[in-house]
Amino acid sequence: MFLPTTIKEVRERGWDQLDVILFSGDAYIDHPAFGAAVIGRLLEAEGYRVAIVPQPNWRDDLRDFTKLGTPRLFFGISAGAMDSMVNHYTANLRLRHDDAYTPGGKAGFRPDRTVTTYTRILKRLFPHVPVVVGGIEASLRRLTHYDYWSDSLHPSILTESEADLLIYGMGEKVVQEVARKMRNGFNAKLLRKIRQVAFVADRKYVERLDQEQTIHLHSFEECVANKKAFGENFARIETLSNLMNPQATLVEQVGDRYVVVTPPNATLSTEELDHSFDLPYERAPHPRYAGKGDIPAWEMIKHSVNIHRGCFGGCSFCTISAHQGKFINSRSERSILEEVQKITRMPDFKGYLSDVGAPSANMYHMSGRNKELCARCRRPSCLHPSKCPNLNDDHRPLLDLYAKIRDIKGIKKAFIGSGIRYDLFDDSPYLETVVKYHTSGRLKVAPEHTEERVLRLMRKPPFALFEKLNTDFHDICEREGLRYQLIPYFISSHPGCEECDMKHLSEKVLGKLHFTLEQVQDLTPTPMTLSSVMFYTGENPYTHEEVYVARSQEEKRRQKSYFFSEDGNPIQSGAAPSRHTAHPTVRTSRQEGFPARFPREGKGSRKSALDRNSDSAPKYTREEYSDRRTRKSGSSDRSRGGFSRDGREMRDGRNDHNGREIQNGLNGRGSRENRDFRDFRRSTSSTGKAAGKSAENPQERSFSGKFRKR
Questions:
Q1: Which of 112, 262, 286, 662 is most buried, judged by most C-beta within 10 A?
Q2: CA 52, CA 288: separation in Å to the nearest integer?
Q3: Alpha-carbon separation of residue 305 from 45, 270, 686 (angstroms)
Q4: What pTM did the predictor assign?
Q5: What is the pLDDT of residues 514-568, one digit of tens each?
Q6: Contact present, 499 and 559 (Cβ < 8 Å)
Q7: CA 551 to CA 554: how far, in whole Å?
């Protein structure tokens, strides 16, 4: 039985009042890959009456926010599996044309800055009911952060939304404790003692804190006035978040108030993580979406299994460690194999698992050998600048798991669609096993760049390791008679990357290695990443060395021009890259005239947008654009036909989704789904031999990947 989403479903359960009502920017899919479902099921298992309101209409008379009444405990809010601004806009600030978390892939079902919008509405309608926010958007905006879409610093989302409490990171353990503390009503004194939460307090409260266990960050106003202060804040926050047992409380002043962030919980145990995945999910979208079109995010992960959480790679542009943590939390073999067996019983399952993966596919059961050394470690990455000698990188537990999955009745092939860290390879036959048994024809990895100076700022391994991987991969394919492809991903416009670096990258990748790249990802600086801090400040906050930043759209286009010709097509391997194109075309959308938008807010709003991006000047916000389309078509924004609200018909083009920043929600799923979805479409529309797959086996061609994580 699904969690209720309407008053009718609530009454069918015989409930007269709900304990918790969850609002989500995503469609409701009852599956452990989607945060609202995980939180709802965990609270249900504790005996609470929980309902979910997915993608409420925030434009009409707000009946979606009032239809379930007043909860006894609190409202819970999440923007969904992605930050709403990343969901809405591309790296070059164009409006995206679809939404992978909505039926039919339609856009316009959530507002910009979803958490703030939903919270303000609920605080206006129910001023005395506590509002608890969580998920990726709230988690990574819990303190002062750089907002790429307004090109300015924003204070904590708590101060902008006026929420009562914020849960950051993976929220299962915390949300249960919050519910227990609220059994007898809202008690700020009890809630402020919970670990892994943030809240707004006054000066008197801050003065009563144990100052030896309190870190006072630069205030929001100081960060706005001095970029170095913002960089120093980030370095202290990231260092604290990478400790095994942090004890310090963070305090940041905003005006005459203070944002207080309590230290995080220890990593979940295997038993606790198994419990989260073993709850009675329906493993399907809610029936309310019948006939409304497939939900792309669900289609990509429904036949996949997540084997662990966390990532110790520490890439500068990635938010996984900031949200899920650096230390690996693995599921038991029993829990994973039981989920695989559930997948084999799904009516549409044809024998092919699309992914046995995680944020990084090959970190299962990896940790430090000496835990005392790990407890003292302050490194943000166990792999950069070199692999930690204390790291146990044994792949045997993972290889044993792969073998047991292959032996399950009904499994024809189990693919690895998540990103593989080739700088973790040991002496085990891991690569050979993956190529022989777990590759759909295209093995995807992410070297990101070729130049050492840029790789150092990215916290990525030397390019020589990718060259070795390329050699080993082709040796295995030749030995086994496999016509498989190695697909590398690269980033352009990362802080520190100049045009000459992209020229060298193209010479090495297109020339020396003879790759034809399908996409070079333009960096989107997302909140709470080292890359975003360097993008905003122009320096490395740890070393204070000056860093070049490609800020204008023209600079970004020039960097991509080494890989894509003026007609937008990839430059073939061995071809001369276009060096002096004045305005090289970058593949973005079939609807090149679709209006771009820069948020009109904040002291640093992009009033110079015409100078920076003359061919796509900002015109409307998402809501303004939808309203114009609605008036033009004569449709009513009061329509209640489920998914016929205003602006739904505006998306029919194909965008250049930045899969790199598609991130996990409360439960930690998500990644480069759009590139992999294009891989999927390309592989199923081409001949088997052209895609390196068997033409006689269409199912093998069908699963070329899923959400990729880093």
A1: 662
A2: 12
A3: 22, 16, 27
A4: 0.81
A5: 888 777 889 999 999 999 999 999 999 999 999 999 999 899 989 988 887 655 6
A6: yes
A7: 8
